[in-house]
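[#protein-structures] MJ: dropping ABC-type nitrate/sulfonate/bicarbonate transport system, permease component here for a structure pass
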Amino acid sequence: MSLMNAARKILLALAVPVLLVAGWWLATAGSASFFWPPLGQILTAFADTWFSARFVTDVLPSLGRLLAGYLGAVVLGVALGTAIGSSRTLRGLLEPVLEFFRAIPSPVLVPILMLFAGIGDGMKILVIVSGCVWPVLLNTVEGVRALDEVLGDTARSYRMRRHSRLIHLVLPGAGPQIAAGARQALSIGIILMVISEMFAASNGLGFTIIQFQRSFAIPQMWSGIILLGLVGIVLSMAFRAVEARLLRWYTGLRTAQREG
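AK: finished. structure tokens for ABC-type nitrate/sulfonate/bicarbonate transport system, permease component:
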């Protein structure tokens, strides 16, 4: 029975992508448009473009910057969110400032960050951090605030140290909302990775796609866009695997509640 359910889930997950690819193939099969080439031509360009040295020179540096910026944003967002969510005074003091900076779009900060961090990898990583930190931070604050006060009082009555309460109560209790923020931040990070590489860059996926567009290498440009989508799918699957492992207790609790 479990095999049947697994097969059904796989078929449902693949149904829409297969239909979209088939529709794209049929719609462009006889295309003579320069800007809308046949999908077969794009796939040929994909293999020639990315299954080469370009994977090392452009794809891997982009993924490295994305990983560094994303992990930095998660660590910073969880640390600040835990502190702000745990202190009513700190929350009241910083909330107006946080709302101000949250309203500033991260791409607008690129010229400013270039002045202070230069045009190297540091600037690109800071752009990713500046956008990814907000969903993690805000979800962490709400997760910490939503913790059961009875559990907190019980921990204090047993004289649990602050470090122990943080590790065994606060972070696990806020874990589901932290994971929700981290999931949102991942998609934002991919977008900012591309945007940051469009400014004063010499490599990366964003830089390469723009170069293809400017040189009218349209099939190669489309192949880069497809590669970005595939990167997003792989990273999403990796995130789900990590999330399922870290939040096993929460998943089991929700399953027990549904069955009960």
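MJ: nice. The mean pLDDT is 87.
AK: one more thing. The chain has eleven helices and no strands.
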